[in-house]
Write a structure and sequence with these properties.
Layout: E1 2-3, E2 11-13, E3 16-20, H1 22-29, H2 31-34, E4 37-49, E5 55-68, H3 71-89, H4 102-114, E6 117-120
Helix pairs in contact: 3-4
Length: 122
Amino acid sequence: MKLFNKNEKYISFKGKKYALNLQKLTEICLSSSKSGGTSEMEISQAYEAQENGEFALASKVEHETKTQGNPQNDMIIYDFVKLLILSLLDNAAPEGDFEWTFSLALAANTLISWGVLEEVNE
């Protein structure tokens, strides 16, 4: 990979220019944040002994927490996309010596099909 010149902001590879679409990256990594929310309910109960030796409910506190989306799912997608991008960035071969491996081809094809890595026509 090589830069065209100091004023050029895109990287050229095999005669094409590529860029990461950060908007698309955000959409993919935070996809579950857009759909519905989840809620968690925590109930704390305290019992006291009665004169007859049995226990009776003395107090009950309910705490509900609502969140947007599912942060665990977002983190799984984020980690997967990060692995794809890192596999591309870890390739240190010059353009003339570059060879497609299975992992590089899978990463590039996946990122291109999702719209995260896009060809720039400028």
